[in-house]
Write the structure tokens for this entry.
Amino acid sequence: MSETLAVWIAAILTLMVYSYLIGDNPLYRLAQHLFVGSSVGYAAVVVIHNVLRPRLFEPLLDDASGNWPYFLPLLLGLLLLAKARGTAAWLGNSSVAFLFGVGAALAIGGALFGSFLPQMQASWVSVLPDTAGGRVAAANNILLAVGTIGTLSYFYFTMGVRKGPGTGLLTFSSTVGKWVLLITFGAIFGNRVMAYVSLLIERIYFLLGDWLGLLG
Amino acid sequence: MIECPECGATNKPESRFCGECGQPLGVPKGVTCPMCETPHAPGITVCTECGARLIPEGVSPSEVPLEPRVPGEVADAPEEGETPGAAEADRGESEEIEEDVAGEEQVKGETMPPWLRKLEVAPGEEVAEQDEDDLERGELPDWLEVPPDFEEMLGEAGVTSEEEEVARADVPAWLEALRPEGVEDVAEISGGHSPAEVTGLLKGIGGTLGIEPILAIPPRAVPVEPGTPSSAAYERADLLRSVIREPARPGIEVSDRSGVEKLAASSVRWMTFLVLAVAVVVPILLGSDWSESNMPTGAGTQGMYDAIDGLPQGAMVLVSFDYDPGVAGEMVPQARVVLSHLMGRGARLLSVSLTPEGARLSRRVLEEVADDYGYRYGEDYLSLGYVVGVEAGPRSIVERIRTPDWSDFVGAGEDLALIVEFAGDPQYLRLWLEQVQGPYGLPMVAGVSATVDPFARPYYLNRAQRQLLGLMTGLVGAAEYERISGEAGPALASMDSQSVAHIALILLILVGNLAYFGNSLRGRLGA
Amino acid sequence: MLVDFFFDEVHINALGGFFVESAVIVVAFALLLGLLNVLVVHMRRISRREGGWFYSIALIAMAVLVVIAGISGPDAWAVTWIFDHIQFPLQAATFSLLAFFVATAAYRGLRIRSLEAVAFVVAAVVVLIGQVPVGRYVGDFVPALKDWILNVPATAGVRGIIIGVALGTIATGVRVLMGFDRPYGRGGDGAK
């Protein structure tokens, strides 16, 4: 048994959360509310001290005239806070617009250069055994390409079916995509299970080791 | 709800002051009892204190709702299923239904306003038929005819007839000629011509336009032949009646599962919980270490190890801790072993986090490992803290680092040698890849939670672009890394527990399927 | 911003950099707004005595406590203590609960009712057994199969998803910038 109050508190809180296995109960609810309150407070502290203070308050306080451009984000930010009050919410619209503008541009650029193009290029892999590094690798590359195209056509096919030439190919391709996605989701599920088990193991180590001291 | 006249806000009915602006609200209009002077809200007809009538007889307060007719007091009330006769044709079907609905409950007589009660016909009395049937076209009914001594009546009542107040117009000569002599007895009309006027300027003159009978007598509603409803219509009417008469049901009742079924269902739940708990706890308690000797290593983890191992001494590495306490169970062992490796290689570390909690979690791990390697804060490693987890965040970090003279930590012209990312969520990995790795072309490796792995693999397998040089997945990945680097740690020790738990879950899937098939087989055999 | 992406000119870079910095600051305010909103919702619940208002008191008390303790910064002793011994255990325990529910899902939810379900379950089982050391003990083919499943079909599927999402992101971004979509309220000035 640990002597430290802190460990005891952490252990009791952990057990309060685990009480949910019995069913929804006041202990669990209290634990959840404490958690939300704490994370809200902590996030606020971190945001104010790690972001706003060094990047906004300090430049303005140090050299207000030289750093005058910083008044712009300050203004936008304060206007944004007006969204808390329904009547004054319209004040924050420009701030939201600014965020969307910058965000959209960054997102577009990022998606284009960081995901779309590289992944397309990656799919454009060699299917010849020589350059791919072996027959198996070449076969795998073919499967990869086919699978990727199949997945895309599965989404296309289910979102908006269009009659036209080549429908047979589209149907085949989307069926391939369907099976590929089934395997994908099975793999995703398996990975998730692995993750949750790992998390449980860590908590058990804490309870049995740090708290109860049963482990050597 | 009362609306405030000043600001328009709604307030509760009994409020006397507006809740928003504080202005006094007028006392709601109502009736004060003449006997005991108790105020009442509008619509109440009888004083609640002394029982006196609040509204005069014969007046209908608009708020008083119509009461359904009391059954049994209405003549010819049809019994259920009886053929509605022609006499009821005028009454709509809705009235019939109303009566039947009210049939079960006795409506108290005193709730019916008096004017309505007068309209009721006492049982046994026949409804007086109108004389209208006997009228010929063109004749006025008695009550509409002007009595011959109308003017005398007016004079007795003291009401002067109208023509004396109106300026007498000149009657043209040719019209005067039409007036017969002896104008007093105009009641007798000569010939069969249209009746003469009896009053007014045109008194005695015949041949004038009579009151157009169509205007005088409102057109009588042509009785609609009731016809004989079909039997299908009767059925439907009966059905409608029975549906309406049914008392309201609370709703679909969930079929009560038998006690045994409930016990079985919850015990299955408990069993699965127990199986998992045992699978996790027992290997830990036994302290088994079979995995430590049998741990395989994956290519992704190996790639990560190699990338870090290949760093020159003193290389500048950016480490981003983008996870929260939820997945810390997986990520902290990863971070610990990788940081050990980095510090062992003498790399200079810049740590940052895209989650608020990550900043604190990273500090804990950094301080712990730094102690082992004698790393000093400010000289060997620096923490940049938290930056917002959107596109702009990673971008701003890298731009800062590349700004000349930003900090002594960064040498002149020095650039990042490697980015090490610990991602608890795919979006953080994607942010670094899209905003930093892609545009700046920096080498990058990642340790991810197992939930993120499927979304990270395409970037790792991108041989053409080399987006990720190495990928480490979950607690298992940390164990692999520990194995490769030869430093046994908590991750490796957990592997037995993980293995047993996985096996247990696979067994659960198997047993679940067997149970399912067994049941359906039993069902099919039994049928 | 887009121009900054494509061109490398000093002034545009500087302006782009300033915009990025400003965005970071404004996003920080947005986060504060979200936190404020949580507090407002729970204060309302307390004042109106709605269901569960007692728990809301705990929530608000906790938040206020942390903020006050953190006036000097998140490295204050009290803040780190609360984080290490209250927030961390609570959050870690909440997520580890999921393992139990995954167990019941494994028993009840993975019924093989159709051919499609076979593919799903087989993939999940192979990954589960292949990721752990026991898998290799069963046979070398197990981890190899797991790797193949993760590297070929799963990667193909996820790659398709990534490409699809990237296309969607680009399309939506263009729409926002062109003004076809206005998620920020009526009559906005239009994102520039």
Residues 1-69 of chain C form one domain. DSSP finds eight helices and no strands in chain C. Chain C touches chain B through 54 residues (CB under 8 Å). The longest helix of chain C spans residues 10-47.
